[in-house]
């Protein structure tokens, strides 16, 4: 029993260290719900990736152009490889008349940007919700640990049984916490990967501007 108690306490100390570390980072980011090492960026801005003609910022305006809605859906689909996306953009650009080419490609860029930002917002919402759930879980574990310390002083059969039951519950909670910590790290990479994919798409679209 004592070895198990020690293991529980050690796991909890690791958890608390992780949470406090995340809390310090969140304070530096001025956002307590952002647990990622990556800097919190609400959305990708046009200026960081586009040097072409001015972009129409009206939501959905790009979708009114013939052929763009379906192309944007294909380019931003997870199943689409970078090579396939480049071929699709090149083929599309080759069908455009010279006088309208830059304007249509700018609409295409606007569609990709809006779609990617929508996907990023969903990812970020999920990450922040994950972080909030982790904080709640730690607060619950801390309360139960205090109760566990109290129960283990009770040497009666009933006291020992309750302490053992709570110990098992604490071990389960710490295991869930640690698994979700690993998931958060993976989730934090998703917006970065999406930004990288978007940057590649923007460069290909820009390369076809006159």
List the topology elements.
Layout: H1 2-29, H2 68-75, H3 82-94, H4 98-151, H5 157-207
Helix pairs in contact: 1-4, 1-5, 2-4, 3-5, 4-5
Can you tell me about this structure?
The protein has 210 residues and is mainly alpha-helical. It has one domain (2-207). It is built from five helices and no strands. The radius of gyration is 25 Å and the shape is rod-shaped. The mean pLDDT is 83.
What's this, in brief?
With 210 residues, this protein is mainly alpha-helical. The chain has one domain.
Coarse shape: rod-shaped
Radius of gyration from CA coordinates: 25 Å
- Total strands: 0
Uncertain regions spanning at least 5 consecutive residues: none
Tell me the number of helical segments per DSSP (H or I, 4 or more residues long): 5
Measured between the Cα atoms of the first and last residue, the distance is: 75 Å
Which percent band covers the strand fraction? under 5%
Key traits:
single chain, mainly alpha, 5 helices
């Amino acid at each position: 029993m004592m070895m198990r108690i020690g293991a529980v306490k050690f796991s909890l100390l690791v958890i608390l260290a992780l949470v406090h570390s995340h809390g310090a980072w969140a304070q530096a980011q001025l956002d307590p719900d952002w647990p990622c090492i990556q800097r919190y960026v609400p959305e990708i801005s046009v200026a960081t990736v586009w040097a072409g003609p001015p972009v129409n910022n009206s939501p959905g305006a790009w979708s009114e152009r013939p052929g763009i809605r379906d192309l944007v859906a294909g380019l931003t689909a997870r199943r689409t490889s970078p090579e396939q996306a480049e071929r699709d953009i090149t083929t599309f650009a080759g069908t455009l008349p010279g006088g309208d080419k830059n304007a249509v490609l700018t609409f295409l860029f606007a569609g990709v940007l809006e779609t990617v930002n929508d996907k990023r917002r969903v990812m970020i919402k999920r990450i922040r919700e994950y972080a909030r759930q982790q904080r709640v879980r730690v607060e619950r574990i801390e309360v139960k640990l205090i109760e566990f310390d109290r129960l283990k002083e009770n040497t009666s059969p009933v006291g020992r049984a309750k302490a053992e039951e709570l110990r098992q519950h604490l071990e389960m909670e710490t295991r869930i916490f640690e698994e979700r910590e690993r998931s958060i790290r993976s989730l934090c990479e998703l917006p970065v990967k999406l930004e990288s994919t978007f940057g590649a798409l923007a460069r290909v679209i820009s390369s076809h501007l006159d």
